[in-house]
Write a structure and sequence with these properties.
The protein is an all-beta fold. The chain has one domain (2-85). Helix content is 0%, strand content 56%. The strands form 2 sheets. Strands 1, 2, 3, 4, 5 and 6 form a 6-stranded antiparallel sheet that branches.
Length: 86
C-alpha cells in the first residue's frame, strides 16, 4: 500500500487534498478533495468506480486503507474521523 498525504493536484478547479493507493485485491486509487468528496478509481479498468460527495463537511486531510480488511478511514478539519466499509 502506498500513502501520499497532502498532495496537490488541480482537476476541474477542485484541489485534491490526498491520494491513496490500496493494493489489497484489486488496485484502487482513492482521492479526497478539499471540498470533502471522496472518489474511488478502478486502476485495472481505468475508470471512476464510485464517489461520495460531501463525505466530510471540510476537506479530506487523510485517507488510510486497513491492510487485509475492507475498511478505509478518513479524517477532516471538521473534527471528524470516519470509517468506511467496502
Amino acid at each position: 500500500m502506498l500513502f501520499y498525504n497532502t498532495c496537490t493536484h488541480i482537476i476541474s478547479k477542485v484541489c485534491m487534498a490526498v491520494v491513496l493507493l490500496c493494493a489489497d485485491g484489486h488496485p484502487i486509487l482513492v482521492t479526497g478533495s478539499t471540498l470533502g468528496h471522496i472518489a474511488l478509481w478502478n486502476l485495472e479498468e481505468r475508470r471512476l468506480q464510485s464517489q461520495m460527495r460531501e463525505a466530510h463537511n471540510g476537506g479530506v486531510t487523510s485517507l488510510y486503507c486497513l491492510p487485509s480488511e475492507p475498511l478505509m478511514v478518513t479524517s477532516s478539519p471538521d473534527n471528524s474521523l470516519k470509517v468506511w466499509h467496502a
